Amino acid sequence: MTARIGVVTFPGSLDDRDTQRAIRLAGAEPVALWHKDKDLKQVDAVVLCGGFSYGDYLRAGAIARFSPVMDTVIEQARAGLPVLGICNGFQILTEAHLLPGAMLGNDHLHFICRDQKLRVENASTAWTSDYEQGQEISIPLKNMDGRYVADEYTLDKLEAEGRVAFRYLDFNPNGSLRDIAGITNEAGNVVGLMPHPEHAVEPLIGTGRTDGLPFFTSILKKLVNA
């Protein structure tokens, strides 16, 4: 049976179709999920995609966190459901307290869009197992509120527990503390990052590389071998 991966669409989401395509290219079945529906349609994993949910009013991800679908996502993520948050999805995961810390406006106060080099710091999560520890990849980045912050205790704990999943290389595009581009929860089933792996799955588009595809092949292998 093909693994089924849900992609949640909120008002203001703009990368849901790209994410569905990436899932399909990896060999899984994408399942469209609507923010007002609590039913996850028995999917095996969930992706919270990029965009500007609810126009980023109040704070990026702050309103989306209270959408009906998130009640179920939060409950099932805590029970082990794999969840990936990309850009706005990462912001939503921090607002939902599935991941620690918070996302603030870029330190230069401008929207940024560029190909971004990253280093894989944790290749043992449900979403990163097809990478190698220390591998350097290039993935598109586009955000206005991408600055990851947390108190020193939380940052030290993330580092000590190996929960920094990705780190910016060569250039910190938004002022994120300790160059953090993505993190994972303790169990490794929830991962959030600001860059967009769904835009780096085919040579024809994005960076012209397929450095983002292992996110989706990783979870497919995890689900097939479960």
UniProtKB/TrEMBL annotation:
The keyword Ligase applies. This is Phosphoribosylformylglycinamidine synthase subunit PurQ. CDD domains: GATase1_FGAR_AT (cd01740). It comes from the Bacteria. It is found in: Cytoplasm. InterPro entries: Class_I_gatase-like, PRibForGlyAmidine_synth_PurQ. The active site is at C87, H196, E198. The gene is purQ. Its EC number is 6.3.5.3, 3.5.1.2. Part of the FGAM synthase complex composed of 1 PurL, 1 PurQ and 2 PurS subunits. It catalyses: N(2)-formyl-N(1)-(5-phospho-beta-D-ribosyl)glycinamide + L-glutamine + ATP + H2O = 2-formamido-N(1)-(5-O-phospho-beta-D-ribosyl)acetamidine + L-glutamate + ADP + phosphate + H(+); L-glutamine + H2O = L-glutamate + NH4(+). Pathway: Purine metabolism; IMP biosynthesis via de novo pathway; 5-amino-1-(5-phospho-D-ribosyl)imidazole from N(2)-formyl-N(1)-(5-phospho-D-ribosyl)glycinamide: step 1/2. Pfam families: GATase_5. Keywords: ATP-binding, Cytoplasm, Glutamine amidotransferase, Hydrolase, Ligase, Nucleotide-binding, Purine biosynthesis. Part of the phosphoribosylformylglycinamidine synthase complex involved in the purines biosynthetic pathway. Catalyzes the ATP-dependent conversion of formylglycinamide ribonucleotide (FGAR) and glutamine to yield formylglycinamidine ribonucleotide (FGAM) and glutamate. The FGAM synthase complex is composed of three subunits. PurQ produces an ammonia molecule by converting glutamine to glutamate. PurL transfers the ammonia molecule to FGAR to form FGAM in an ATP-dependent manner. NCBIfam families: FGAM_synth_I, PRK03619.1.
